[in-house]
Design a protein that fits this description.
heterodimer; A: mainly alpha; Rna Polymerase Sigma Factor, Chain: A; Arc Repressor Mutant, subunit A; 8 helices; 72% helix; globular; B: mainly alpha; 77% helix
Chain lengths: 170, 196
């Protein structure tokens, strides 16, 4: 194993949790989530030699991961027929475990999965606490545009969460 | 549920169990660029296999030597044109896709490259028009009873054959492109528009 490959694996190991979170935002079943996870790791590896360290590795990685997730192709039909009753896809850390939170986490993911790919990316940056300026840089759009789009995405997500929560409680 | 609570939920999530990094699964293709590359590779190899078969098959037809020779030269020229265009396609696909750019630039870049590919593809199909016309001339000339046609009948039959062939080439080319490439281009186009 070369030193570059070793360095890559060490860095990926630190960030694989967040890559898996992105996969879960974009795909709604375990197989597709695993496929997207692998694809992101592959794309990051392909571009790894171009990483110059001008930004944080995580910032650079998020950009590649989301750009990959946005154009990831999976059959829409297949997705529509799959039911997600598997709560274990979305787990709360053991030391903070709370059943209600775990249910909410599931509702959150299921609602995010219904957004379009661009809105999902914006919500990801929001959840990761990116500022409007950072978000705009990552997305390659103006700050004003990023803020407007984020607000719209948040509105859509709010509606979806409310629908999903009332469906779950019914 | 308040949206601000989502951040706290997001941070409480347990992601200690992630999939194993597997080189096997990475061989599966899900990106549009990779799918197009794969389709193009298949198209190239099927054309490269088909053309020598045509070159050989011509010798089984009972036609005068000179017509056989003309067809052989035409098919060989078509092979050269095919190799030229596919080398362009492959070069294009080696150079595109940069996921390290900002999302909008990355998508726009991908979309423009797809559009460029579309233009190459159109030129590729148009380059077959003169070959097709030459083939119709050779076929018409090689049919003995066509020499007894009146000028009017020859003109009508010749023009109808060419028009029919060109329409078939147009509709088939259009269907082929949309089926194998167009759906990916539409998807990327929509994403670019969403980000504008």
């Amino acid at each position: 194993m070369g030193s570059s490959e070793k360095e890559f694996l060490e860095k990926i190991d630190k960030h694989k949790g967040i890559i898996f979170k992105i996969s879960k935002m974009y795909m709604d079943n375990r197989d597709d989530q695993n496929d997207l996870f692998q694809e992101i790791v592959y794309q990051v590896w392909k571009s790894f030699s171009t990483f110059e360290g001008k930004s944080e590795f995580s910032t650079w990685l998020y950009r590649i991961a989301l750009n990959t997730a946005i154009i990831f192709l999976k059959s829409e039909k297949k997705r529509n027929f799959i039911q997600n009753d598997d709560v274990s896809l979305y787990k709360i850390k053991e030391d903070e475990y709370n059943h209600e939170d775990e249910q909410k986490l599931k509702v959150m993911y299921e609602s995010i999965q219904k957004l379009n790919p661009i809105d999902k990316a914006l919500i990801f940056y929001y959840l990761e606490d990116f500022s409007g300026k950072e978000m705009a840089e990552q997305m390659g759009i103006s700050e004003g545009n990023a803020r407007v789009k984020l607000n719209r995405a948040k509105e859509k997500l709010k509606e979806l969460i409310n629908k999903e929560a009332s469906r779950a409680s019914a | 549920m308040d949206l601000d609570n989502l951040k706290s939920l997001w941070n409480k999530e347990d992601v200690s169990e992630t999939p194993e990094i597997s080189t096997e699964r990475q061989k599966e293709i899900h990106l549009p660029l990779e799918k197009i590359r794969k389709n193009m590779r298949n198209e190239f190899w099927s054309t490269i296999i088909l053309l020598p078969i045509v070159l050989i098959a011509i010798w089984f037809f009972n036609i005068p030597f000179r017509f056989r020779l003309y067809i052989e030269v035409l098919v060989a020229s078509m092979t050269l044109v095919t190799v030229f265009f596919f080398s362009k396609f492959f070069k294009l696909y080696r150079e595109i896709s940069n996921p390290t750019l900002g999302t909008y630039d990355s998508l726009k870049d991908l979309f423009h490259q797809f559009e460029l590919n579309k233009q190459y593809y159109l030129s590729f199909y148009l380059s077959f028009v003169p070959f097709f016309v030459c083939e119709i001339i050779i076929i018409t000339e090689s049919i003995p009873y066509s020499h007894q046609y009146t000028d009017g009948l020859l003109a009508v039959k010749f023009i109808i054959s060419i028009l029919f062939g060109l329409f078939a080439l147009y509709f088939f080319g259009n269907w082929w492109f949309k089926h194998f490439y167009g759906k990916y281009i539409d998807k990327i186009k929509k994403l670019v528009e969403d980000l504008k």
